[in-house]
Amino acid sequence: MNGSPQENQSNTRIIVRWFLILLGLSTLGCILFFGGKFLYGFGQRVAEEIAGVDETLTSSPTQTLISIPLTATITATNGPSPTPTFYFTIPTATVTVIPWTQCPGIVVSTRDTEQGDFLHVLRCEDGYEYEIGPLTKGAYAVSPDDKYLVYASINGLLYAAKIGDPVLYTVVNLKKEGPFVTFGKKVPPIFQLKFNGEGPYVLEVYESRYGQNFPVNMPNWLSQ
């Protein structure tokens, strides 16, 4: 037998009521899910902006490895075996220093002018600088003890001067006493100077155009 109209209406209202409850719960769940997701993303963006992190950064940052040189120093002890001590050195920036604190003893350079060549001399130990000239073209060399320099000019004169003294003194006339044929042929010589032995030094004057060599015993007073 079919139920009465009142019972059917009551059942219908119950079904509609449960449907609305389920629909409301589903809607509330969707709102909570998407709302939570939005709040999570918004919170991350705000945190990144506060921390100064660029949003364009990838999730896997590139790591740069810096190699640190490993220096091992072995110190001998009285025990059965030496104990190695390791020092880790991190490279530092190069410090700009006064030029003569790193130069090797005496630094000589030439400056070509219309009046002739000038020798610029720098004594590294105290930074003293001066010039010698003007001079004719030639070749120069500094003694192994850094006490004096020599200069062989193309006119055939060999000069010498103590470091710190801007005056050159004639040591020998290579044109008259040397074997160099270049002067007779009126061709400019090409001199190369080299010190040999121990003080007092012997200066080897080599003329490379004709391959001739002439040894000169340097005076003792130059090294004093």
Q: What about the largest sheet? A: 4 strands, antiparallel
* H/E topology pattern: HEEEEEEEEEHEEE
CATH class term of the largest domain: Mainly Beta
CATH architecture of the largest domain: 6 Propeller
Radius of gyration: 46 Å
How far is the first residue's CA from the last residue's CA? 143 Å
Strand percent estimate: 25-35%
Number of helices: 2
Which secondary-structure class do the elements indicate? alpha+beta
Mean pLDDT: 79
Characterize the structure shown.
The chain is of the alpha+beta class. The termini are far apart. Mean pLDDT is 79; it is low at 53-61 and 67-101. It is 23% helix and 33% strand. The strands form four sheets. Strands 6-7-8-9 form a four-stranded antiparallel beta sheet. The protein has a three-stranded antiparallel beta sheet with strand order 3-4-5, with no helix packed on it. Strands 10-11-12 form a three-stranded antiparallel beta sheet, with no helix packed on it. A hairpin with a 5-residue loop joins β10 and β11 (202-207). The chain has helices at 5-51, 174-177, and strands spanning 70-75, 83-88, 106-112, 117-123, 128-135, 138-142, 148-153, 157-162, 169-173, 191-196, 202-207, 212-217. It is rod-shaped. The chain folds into two domains: 10-44; 99-223, Neuraminidase.
Summarize the structure in short.
It contains two helices and twelve strands; from the N terminus they run H-E-E-E-E-E-E-E-E-E-H-E-E-E. The protein is of the alpha+beta class and 224 residues long.
